[in-house]
Amino acid sequence: MNRIGVTGHRTIPRAAYAHVLIGLRAAIGGVEGPLDALSSLAAGADQLFADIALSHGAELTAVIPSGDYESTFSGAAELARYRGLKDRAAREVRLDFPHSTDEAYYAAGAYIADHCDRLFAVWDGRPARGLGGTGDIVTYARALGRPVTVIWHAGVERD
């Protein structure tokens, strides 16, 4: 089984969205054989990755950073999408953090990097805005020697 993971921004600017969508579809579709897709199911890149992976027949592993993770979703629609994806997961890994902190997010990203064969990064190339952000997880994965595929629209920056 090929294990693919994701790290990425919660907010994908409109100018980058179509490019990211096409890039994720191509990257996931290019992996041959059975897939296990690891994601924390955060809004934005994580949920987009999970949707696409499931549509390609992947099994989904939900990596839940903390006990209060659901409280981090803004609005009923975001939370419903998270719950819907989590319900479709073949496996769930719950980390032992009671609260959603930067350390919990870093641990979840590191878990994904530790347990995947390739990491897809929906990333604008800029440093993380807090511990456990996309830039930190890309750096961590690369230090492990994990292949990282960056998917982004050149010239577009997050707000």
Tell me briefly what this model is.
With 159 residues, the chain is α/β, with parallel strands linked by helices. The chain is 41% helix and 23% strand.
Folded structure, characterized:
It is a single chain. The chain has 159 residues and is an alpha/beta fold. It has five helices and six strands. β1 (2-8), α1 and β2 (35-39) form a beta-alpha-beta unit. The termini are far apart.
Features:
23% strand; alpha/beta; six-stranded parallel sheet; 159 residues
Instruction: Report strand %.
Output: 15-25%
Beta-strand segment tally: 6
Q: What is the tally of helical segments? A: 5
From the helix content, strand content and strand pairing, which structural class follows? alpha/beta
Under the CATH scheme, which class?
A: Alpha Beta
- The total number of structural domains is 1
H/E element string? EHEHEHEHEHE
Compute the separation of the termini in Å: 37 Å
- The second-level CATH architecture is 3-Layer(aba) Sandwich
Helical content band:
40-55%
The coarse silhouette is globular
Element layout with pairings:
Blueprint: E1 2-8, H1 14-29, E2 35-39, H2 45-55, E3 59-66, H3 76-88, E4 91-97, H4 102-115, E5 118-122, H5 134-144, E6 148-151
Parallel strand pairs: 1-2, 1-5, 2-3, 3-4, 5-6
Helix pairs in contact: 1-2, 4-5
